[in-house]
Amino acid sequence: MNIGIFGGTFDPIHKGHLALALRARAQCKLSRVYFVPTNFPPHKTSQPVAAYCHRYAMTALATAGEKTFVPSQLEAPPSALRTESSARGHILRPNYTIDTVRKLKQELNKSDRLFFLIGIDAFRDIAKWHEPDALFQECDFIVASRPGYSLAYVANVLPEKLRPREELTRPFAKEPAKGDLVLAGVSMHLIDDLNLHISATAIRLALAGKRSITRMVPESVEEYIKKEGLYREEGEASPQRR
Ligand code: ATP
């Protein structure tokens, strides 16, 4: 079976995330997509993030209508874990995506093929992730691109060992980033026409400015945010944020 894994801060999860997962599911015939709210995103430690329990709850609400979308606690913080030894292990090191992917693979069948869902904004930095080559070895990638990104661009941000030589990518500098890109050690599927101008940042800003977020999040998520009083102040660590 083809299985998707979609990690994100999901602070909060929004319609852009869901659109990407729906398209990825259709395009790559995914039987299931795991939505994994990250614990301490290594690249986002400087900014306050809503508590894991809220981000997970919103992920569960947003995915409730789709049987093949599975909210996952693969990156639950140590406090949510039972044993002391595993809690200690988690405190000492940040969550690396490759560890999460390996953990998930242990639960899947050997014949399952794993697809990693990601937006181009995050993919641009993929070479700086922990063990990026191993990530490409473990998963196919499904990348939501945007107009203005070329196939050459996507190839040139690959981890160094997997990156094709520049003279080979130059002819593709004007080719839009769409279709499949298969290179030695890399299998990627590019989506170029989602273009939903929604981000969690815009949602948090709208809420802090008392503007509507109805266009950007599922109704259940909007209700949860209101009930819990999340994101009332811009960028500040309120009791719900850390
Ligand atoms: P923030 O605005 O706080 O940075 P975000 O909206 O980018 O958050 P994340 O949880 O950081 O949300 O993103 C998880 C994944 O979803 C990333 O790979 C990101 O590139 C992708 N993504 C986010 N928004 C969209 C969107 N509108 N369309 C397609 N992919 C998206």
Describe this structure in words.
- With 242 residues, the protein is an alpha/beta fold.
- It has one domain (2-197): Rossmann fold.
- The chain has 10 helices and 7 strands.
- Strands 3-2-1-4-5-7-6 form a 7-stranded mixed beta sheet, with helices on both faces.
- Helix 1 links the parallel strand 1 and strand 2 (30-37).
- The longest helix has 13 residues, at 15-27.
- It binds adenosine-5'-triphosphate.
Q: Would you spell out the secondary-structure blueprint of this structure?
A:
Blueprint: E1 2-8, H1 15-27, E2 30-37, H2 52-63, E3 69-71, H3 84-92, H4 97-107, E4 113-119, H5 120-123, H6 132-138, E5 140-144, H7 151-156, H8 166-169, E6 179-183, E7 186-191, H9 200-208, H10 219-228
Parallel strand pairs: 1-2, 1-4, 2-3, 4-5, 5-7
Antiparallel strand pairs: 6-7
Helix pairs in contact: 2-10, 4-6
